[in-house]
Amino acid sequence: MDFNFLDILIKKRIGERLNPEEIEFIIKNYSNGSIPDYQFAAFLMAVYYKGMDFEETTNLTRAMLYSGKTLDLSEIKMPKIDKHSTGGVGDKVSLILAPLVASCGVCVPMISGRSLGHTGGTLDKLESIPGFRTNLSLNEFKIQLKKINLGIIGQTEEIAPADKKIYSLRDVTGTVDSIPLITASIMSKKLAEDLDGLVLDVKFGNGAFMESYKKAKELANYLVKIGKKFKVKTIAILTDMNSPSGDCIGNSLEIIFPTTSAHTTAWHL
């Protein structure tokens, strides 16, 4: 079926539901460059104001997930578990937790993000280490996982390429704190990792995207439901980010002084 992007944009602008084929059309054509940034920015703003229900968010996640390849880690027999944060000022938990978990005999394949809004990104922090590479090929990533149980990379032209483009555009269009867009961005990366389990650290407070506990709980609910929809065991933890995590803020400082503390509330779904 042929679609017209403008018709789909108007449909979402007036608050109507998009069907799976329309969402797939948008993501496919934005990924290959057929839809320019200025038009897709309008779509992001329509989603920001009109939202997406759970089914639409699931279809958006699926379209972004299959915009590229997914990992096959069947050769690795140990449990494959990842942890992902929705982002907060001074958030450096992954820098400490991932190596600790890997040292306990768990494989941790981690596709992380860059800075978004006022929050720092794990990739940017790691790249403040001279010579540290996060742009590994899929083969290099698998080799590293087999060797040390841990690998941290960003979205690539192979893995979640749609999210790579959309992630950057959200940052400059004021559409960061949208629950459907956050959910699809995070889960399209996580579901590409061939995981057995996923732990989500959902931040709330003035140092996070979700300022209220209520909104963070809603986001956590969406994330966990999407994980279960794709048959990945998923739990979420809500973390208070009304104060920075740890003693330092800034990419290189958080590498040098990675100690962290925060108030957490478990939210299991």
TrEMBL record:
Gene Ontology cellular-component annotations: cytosol
Q: Tell me where in this chain the Glycosyl transferase family 3 N-terminal domain is found.
A: 7-68
* Entry EC no(s): 2.4.2.4
Q: Which GO terms describe its molecular function?
A: 1,4-alpha-oligoglucan phosphorylase activity; thymidine phosphorylase activity
SUPFAM superfamilies the record matches: Nucleoside phosphorylase/phosphoribosyltransferase catalytic domain, Nucleoside phosphorylase/phosphoribosyltransferase N-terminal domain
Matching InterPro entries, A to Z?
Glycosyl_Trfase_fam3, Glycosyl_Trfase_fam3_N_dom, Glycosyl_Trfase_fam3_N_dom_sf, Nuc_phospho_transferase, Pyrmidine_PPas_bac/euk, Thymidine/pyrmidine_PPase
Q: Does the keyword Transmembrane apply?
A: no
Keyword Transferase in record: yes
Q: Which family does it belong to?
A: Belongs to the thymidine/pyrimidine-nucleoside phosphorylase family.
Quaternary state and partners of this protein? Answer: Homodimer.
Q: What is this protein called?
A: Thymidine phosphorylase
| Species, as recorded | candidate division WOR-3 bacterium
